[in-house]
Amino acid sequence: MAALLRKVWQSVSSRAEPTRNTPEPEAAYGQSSTGEFDRLPVDIFTQILKLLGPKEAARLVAVCKSWKLIVSKNRLWIYFLQNQEEPWDSIFFAETHLRLGHPLQALPNQISQLSFMEIYGQRAQVPGSIIIDGGSGYCKFGWSKYARPSGQCATFVEFGNIESPAYSRVRHFFSTIYSRMHLKTTTQPVVVSLPICHYDDTESAKALRRQLKEIFYSVLLDMNVPAVCAINQATLALYAARRTSGIVVNIGFNQTSVVPILHGKVMRKVGVEVLGVGALKLTTFLRDLMQQKNIHFESIYTVRSLKENLCYIALDYEAELSKDTQASFEVAPEGWFTLSKERFQTGEILFQPHIAGVRALGLQRAVAICINRCQAAELTGDDTWFKTVVLTGGSACLPGLAGRLEKELSRLLPHSVSSGIRVISAPYGVDSAWFGAKLISNLSTFPGRWCIAKKQFRHTSRRNLIW
Predict the structure, then answer these.
(1) Which helix (DSSP H) or strand (DSSP E) does residue 2 occupy?
(2) Up-side HSE of residue 264: CA atoms within 13 Å toward CB?
């Protein structure tokens, strides 16, 4: 400690002389003295602590009561948290809304009582987890301490013989991921995203969802994973957008789902809307449009690249038809491709599926139906929870989608309902669920109440596995 104090004083000596006439530190710091540091204003002392860094600043708590009070100030530890790779607003959301586990218990009245010094220390010791986001097109997996997923593979439904038992296929799926990551199953907890499926609130749908979740838990715990957390993909995408309630529009590989979520729980009693238009349909429709111009592709991945880099959603479809929208993009090794009206016609099938010969509701109508049902259900005294619409999925990243959906909703819904509706673009695109799992995995209280260990799983009531 003596060496630490000498280091601090050397850092201060060059700054102390010009500040001798500055006011004394606040009286609130108590009667015990901080010695020569009493001559320094609090803001200068805080800057010194920032230069020392979090570990050495934490050690200064043991010097005396005055130092403990100064060092424990939340503003200092918020500064340390702000200078991490993870966005500060995401950390703040997670620690104030998710830290107590599920069911969610937000702490709006207790935020001022949180010690961010303790939170910082706890987060530094969190073991993290392996994140496996099944996805509907392909699976993303990686380590929660990484900035993004480290790899991808086929989804679990594509593993093994389609006629083989679900347990065997899921085990093969997880074994493959661990093999690719070169990890032992016993090293870290796992956060797994559950696919959005079996949408109804019927007893049979509940049983199927429960069965799928039990298979995931059984397989991983039988593989000696220390703890498992399995959460719905839509809920994780909502967390990634720093929300716990709202409507998630997930544009998946084969279909689009509109999912109402209240306090982290899918409101199936309200109803999940499902549309038969997904990312694959958009890609194949663009291919068909180009083939009509005698442009053929060797690979569907070329078409997908053109969709991701050139396509967008028109705010006014009819007006866009009269504009010059031509643009080109190079896809190696096939060369340059030029698109014009196809750029916005592709995404338009989300709002007008009949253009592609699909008999389905338009996205705007499905979301409007969901909003009306949420309002009629009167699930809570707050009638604004369903006015936040979060987009997720790769195709949800098409430019203009959020603005167009907002415009269509304001046209379809009464002003009293549409007022205040906000559509949030996909925060992390196709990786939104993965980043939602990352928020949970790096919580100061993880694994805590988020995960289930083997002993707990054997004694967990069937009802608790439904959320």
Answers:
(1) helix 2-16
(2) 22
Q: SS3 breakdown of the chain: % helix, strand, coil, rounded to 5?
A: 50, 15, 35
User: φ, ψ for residue 203 (rounded to 5)?
Assistant: -65, -35
Per-residue confidence (pLDDT) for residue 26, from 0 to 100 = 42
Q: What is the pLDDT of residue 88?
A: 87
Q: In this structure, which amino acid lies at residue 350?
A: L
Tokens standing for residue 226: 């220390």
Q: How confident is the model at residue 246 (pLDDT cuts 50, 70, 90)?
A: very high
* Phi (first) and psi of residue 229, to 5 degrees: -125, 120
The stretches of 182-326 forming alpha helices (DSSP H) are 203-222, 233-240, 279-291, 300-310, 317-320
Residue type, 90: S
Confidence of residue 27 (pLDDT cuts 50, 70, 90): very low
The torsion angles phi and psi of 166, rounded to 5 degrees, stand at -60, -40
Residue with the two structure tokens 């995931």: 216
Q: How far apart are CA 222 and CA 207, in angstroms?
A: 22
Does residue 401 contact residue 391 with C-beta atoms inside 8 Å?
yes
C-alpha 462/C-alpha 211 separation (Å) is 10
Asked whether residue 220 carries a pLDDT value surpassing 90, the answer given is: yes
* CA 82/CA 120 separation, integer angstroms: 11
Query: What does DSSP assign to residue 23?
Result: P
Check whether 464 has a pLDDT greater than 90.
Answer: no
Q: 């593989």: which residue's tokens? A: 223
Query: Is residue 325 within 8 Å of 341, Cβ to Cβ?
Result: yes
The DSSP line for 317-359 is HHHHTTS---EEEEETTTEEEEESTHHHHHHHTTT-GGGGT--
Rounded to whole angstroms, what are the CA distances from 91 to 146, 425, 437, 467? 15, 20, 13, 24
Q: Does residue 259 contact residue 271 with C-beta atoms inside 8 Å?
A: no
Q: What is the mean pLDDT of residues 266-294?
A: 93
Mean pLDDT for 435-459 is 89
Instruction: Please count the other Cβ atoms lying within 10 Å of the Cβ belonging to residue 270.
Output: 23
Using 50, 70 and 90 to split pLDDT, how confident is the model at 134?
A: confident
Q: What is the pLDDT of residues 188-212, one digit of tens each?
A: 999 999 888 878 888 888 888 888 8
